[in-house]
């Protein structure tokens, strides 16, 4: 991948160059398409400051009508769901607050 200009940073969502606790909000909008979604969420937990906000908006069909299982999985990584909107016909949105618990391990390694 190549950056379009000097204001764009090319990065893997599972391993960003951001410092731990350096951002107040992470937005995933139509971007959780990889097979390593858990690692994306863990990376969001790492870079978010205490009580930072994670906002997710995805096509409803991605959740196979089981938003509870998805939100429970995100909460198990260290978030608390503060809002879940599934009333829209094509999209679902979640707003979550970062908790201070440690993220889950993936393949026995903690995501940095």
From TrEMBL:
Pfam families: Methyltransf_8. Probable methyltransferase required to silence rDNA. The keyword tRNA-binding does not apply. GO terms for biological process: methylation; rRNA processing. GO terms for molecular function: methyltransferase activity. This is Ribosomal RNA-processing protein 8. InterPro entries: RRP8, SAM-dependent_MTases_sf. It comes from Bugula neritina. The keyword Transferase applies. Keywords: Methyltransferase, Nucleus, rRNA processing, S-adenosyl-L-methionine, Transferase. It is found in: Nucleus, Nucleolus. Its EC number is 2.1.1.-. GO terms for cellular component: nucleolus. Belongs to the methyltransferase superfamily. RRP8 family.
């Amino acid at each position: 991948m190549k950056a379009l200009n000097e204001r764009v940073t090319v990065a893997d969502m599972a391993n960003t160059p951001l410092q731990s606790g350096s951002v107040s909000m992470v937005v995933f909008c139509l971007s959780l398409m990889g097979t390593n979604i858990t690692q994306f969420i863990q990376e969001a937990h790492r870079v978010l400051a205490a009580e930072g906000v994670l906002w997710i908006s995805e096509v409803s069909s991605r959740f196979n009508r089981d938003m509870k299982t998805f939100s429970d999985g995100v909460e198990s990584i260290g978030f608390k769901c503060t809002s879940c909107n599934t009333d829209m016909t094509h999209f679902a949105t979640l707003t979550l607050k970062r908790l201070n618990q440690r993220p889950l391990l993936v393949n026995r390694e903690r995501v940095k």
